[in-house]
Design brief:
With about 1000 residues, the chain is α/β, with parallel strands linked by helices. Helices cover about 45% and strands about 15% of the residues. It has 34 helices and 28 strands. Strands 13-12-14-11-15-17-10-18 form an 8-stranded mixed sheet, with helices on both faces. The protein has a 6-stranded parallel sheet with strand order 3-2-6-8-1-9, sandwiched between helices. The chain has a 6-stranded mixed sheet with strand order 21-24-25-26-27-28.
Length: about 1000
Amino acid sequence: MAIRIAVGALGTGLTREETTWLQRALAGTGRATLIVPSFAVRDACRRELARAGMGVGVDVLTLGAWVASLWELLGDGRRLVGGLERKLLMAQVLAGAPEAGEGDAPRALTPGIVALHARAAAESLPYIERAGEAAAAREGDAVAPVLSAAERALVQALARYGEELDARGLTEPSVAARLIADQVRALAPACARAVAVHGVPELPEYALELLEACAGAGEVLLCVDAGMAGMAAQLGRRLGAAVERCAPRDPDAAGTAADVPAARFAEVAGPSARDAAYTVLVLDAARAGDVVAASPDPLALARHLAPRLAARGVASRVEARLRFSETRAGELFFMLIDVLDRMGNEEPVAWWPAPELVDWIRSPFAGVWSGAARIACASDKRWRGSRLVDADGVLRELRSLQSNETRLESDRAQESGAARRPVAVFDVLEALAAGDYRAALQAMLGVAQAASPGMFGQGGMVAKQVEVAALGAALACLADARRLGTPPAAALPVLSDLPVKVSAAVEPAARGDGLGAVAFAALDAAAEGAPASAAAVLLLDLDADTCPCARQDTPATVLARKLGCAGASATPAERQRVTVRRALAGGRAGTLAYVARTREGEEVFPAFALDELKNALGAGAAVVAGLPTEYALAQNLDPSGGEGLALETVSCTPAHALPRHLAPYLYLPDMVWRGAVVPRRFSASSIEAYLSCPYKWLVTNRARSKRLDAAFGPIERGNFVHDIMQRFHERLIEAGLMRVTPENVERALELMRASFEELKADHARGKFTHGKYARQGAARVRSPYVPLGELERSRLASALPMLEGVVRAEADMLPIFTPELFEYSFDAADLRYAGRPLGGRIDRIDVAPDAGSGERFVVIDYKTGGSDADMASPDPTAREDAEAEVATWIPGRDRDKSPVVQTLIYAQAYRRIAHASPQGAAYLITRGPKVAAMVDEALTSMEPPALPSGRVYAFPDLPAPGKKSKKPEGTLGFTEMLDAVEAGIAEELDRLEAGEIAPAPAKDSCKYCPIKMCEKRR
C-alpha cells in the first residue's frame, strides 16, 4: 500500500514536496488528482500548477467533487444526492416518523435536528446499513445492544432515509465512495492511481477507504498542516503509514505560505469601547494599504464599523453567508408563521398585542405604500390600548387595510400611468394560515421587487438585492421540496437553515488620502487569501466564547465511533490554530484583538490561538496601547469619533430647579375642554402625589408618563372592584334592603355574586350594560379588567371571595349610616380647595340623620391593597410633645410616610357642597377586609361601635369613659383637623406654583415611582 503522510506548514498554495510528487506522478501515469479543502484553495492551486507547467493533467477538486467525478465514470447510474436534497428528504423522514414511545418526549422538527441527521446520513449511512444487515443476520448482535435509545432512533431514521433514496434513484456520496472503492480495486483506473490530499481538515471513513483503494492501485500522498499534528497521528494509525516531515518550503514559489508576520495584540476594555477601539485599529492599518478585518461574525462587525470608517473616508465591503431565517425577509416569514399559530391555537395572552404584525405592516414586504409607519403606529396603539382585541378582529383589520391600500394603489397607477404595485399585507397572512408557504414567499418577493431601495433602510439597494436573492433562494428550496414530495411544513426547518450569500459595500462621501479599503471577512475566508496579499490583517473578536475549542459530541458522532466509521479530523483547537496562522500570513502586518469584559463586567478570556501565539512570542509580543476606553464617551457614541465637536461651557440652573420665568408653566391654571377655556382642577390623587414627592408628581402628573399596553394590574383590578361595589349597592337599593345588616347578609351575598357576574361580563365586552353608567349612556368601560389566560382568569375569580368578605364586614360597619351616593362626581360644583379649583369622584358617601349640626356623613374610598397602618394617622395633639393648637397638618409627615389625604380632601369638599356635618373619612381595604379611618370622636364612643375593627383614630383623641390614659387628651376636632389639613396642603401647593420640584421622597414614596435612577431614591 503506497500511502505517504507528510506534515508541514501548508498555505493556500503547494509545498515543494507536493509539487515534486505531482510532477513525478504525471510522468508515470499521465494524470493525477489533487484534493483540496475549498474552492478558494482550488483556484490558488490551479494557478500555481499552471505556472509550474502542470495546468493540464492534474485535476484539482474538493473531496465531494472528486467522488462525483469518479461516480460518473464508475457508478451504477444512480444520481448523487445534493446537500439541500439530503436535508429535505431527511426532514420528510423525520416528519413521518412513528410517534414517540411511552415515556419518550415528542421530538420537535428543528433545523438542528434535521442538520444532525443529515450529517449522519452523509458520513455514516453505508456503515449503518452494514450494521443493520449484521443485526438481521444473527441474533444477539454485538452492535445493537450497545446503542442508546437516541442512537437506535438515529439508525432507524437513517434506514428509512436510505429507502427514500432508493425509491428516487438517488444515493449518498458515502455509499457511492464504497462502491467506487470496489471498482478501483478491481479495475485500477488511471484516474485513481495518483491522488494527493492537500490540507483537508476532515476525512470521513468512506474517503479513507477510497484512498486506501487508490493506494492499492497506485500512490497516495496526504499532506497535513503542522498545526494539525493530532489529525496526522490519527491518519497514521488508521492507514498504517508512517508520518514524515515535508521538505523545507520554497519561499520563492508563488502562493506558498510565508512565515507568520510579527503580530500585535490588542485588548479592548469593554463592549462600550469596542467599536471605537476597532475603528482606531483598522484606520491605523488602512494608512498602509488595503486591510482585511476578519471576525467570527463579519456581517455584524461590518454593520458596526462600516459607518464609522465611512465617516473617516474609508471604503469597506463585506461578503458573508446568512441563514434564511437571519435575513429580514426570513425573520418576518417565520415570525408570522409563529404568531399566526399562536393566534389560532393558544389563548390571547400568548400573542396579544401582536407586535409582530406591527413590524410586518411597516416592512418592505407587506406592500403598505401609503404611510406604512403611520398606519403601523396607529395599529400598535389601538391593539395595545385594549385587551378586548381578538385574533379575528386583528385579521379583519388587516384585510380591510389590504382592500384600502389596493384601491389607493389602483388610483395612483391610473393617474400616473405607472404599473400598479402589489399589496400583500393580508395575502401573505392568508397564505401562511393555509400552509401555502410558496404563495406567501412569492407575494413577499413581488412586493420587495417593487419597493424602492430606501424602504430597506441604510443598506439601500444592497439590502434590497440581498432580500430579493434570499426570497428567490427560498422559493427554489420549496420547489425542490415539492419535487421530492417533502410536505411544506417539514421543509420549514430546512428553509430556516438555507444559506444565503450576502455582499455589501459602503462608500464614503469622499475617499481619504492615502487610505486603503477594508474587506470584512469570516476567519476561514481570510485564511484562504494569498500570502501577503493585504497590507494588514486584523483578527477581531477572538475570544473563547466566539471561538470555542470544545468538541461537542452528538448522537451522530458517538454512533460513528461505535460503528468504527469516525474517520479522521482535526480538533477545534488545531483548526483554530491553523486558521489564525494562515489568516495572519495573508497580510504584511497582523493584529489580534478581543474585548476583555462583558457589559456586566465579567472577565472574557482570549481565544486559544491568540493566547497560544502571545505566549509563544513571550516578551517580544507587541501590545497596542492608547485605545479608547469606556470613558471615551464621545468616541464611543459618535460614529465620527467626536471629530468636529465643539466644547462649550454654559450656565444652567441647579438640578431639579426651574428658572423663575418657567415656574408659571409648571401648573397651567386653564385648559381647553370641548372648545372652551375652563379652569384646570386639581385632583386629590395629584395632590397626594406632590405631597409624596414633588419630582414624582412632575413625572407622573405633569409629564404624564403612560404605560404602552393595557394591563391586568392594580389599576384595572381597582376599577373592576369599584364598578362591582357600585353595582352591588345599586342592587341593594333596588331590592329595598338599602344596606347590609346581620339579618340580610345571605341575601346581600346573592346580590354581590350577581353583581360580580354582571360586571365581569361588562368588562369582558368593554361596555356597561348594567347600572348607573349604562343608564346615563356612558357605556364604555375605561381600563377594563380583561383576563387573557388561565392565570389571569384565576386572579379575576379570586376577587369574588374577597368581595364576599367585604359584604360580611359591612353588616357591622356604621350601623346608623346608610350608603347613599356612589361614584359621586363633583366636577360641576365649581368647588375650591386650598384656594384652587378641585374636581374628582368620591367612591361612596354614607349618611345618617341630622343630629343638630346638619346631615351627618362619612366618606369611604375603596382600596384593593395596601397597609391600613399607612392610611390613617392619629390626632397630632394627643402627644407629649404636641402643640396646644395645630394650624396646619400633613398626616404622615411626622412618621416619614407618604401623606394619605384623599378621603380627608373629599370629606372637606362634600362638607362645603352639602353643608353637612362630616363624621369620618375611611378607607375600606377589600383585601382582608380592613378599615383605616380618621373619624369624629362620637363614632368611636357610640355603642355598638361604628367601626368595630380596623385602624380607627378619633378626633379629638379622648380616653374612653371611666378609663385613664397616660397620654394627653387631644384637642383637634374632626372638622378642625380637616381645616388644618387644607391649610397645610395650601402651603404645599404654593410651593408647587413657585416651581419647587426637587425630589423629597418619604421612605415609602419611591415604591411605584418610574424614575429608577433618582439620586434621592429610597
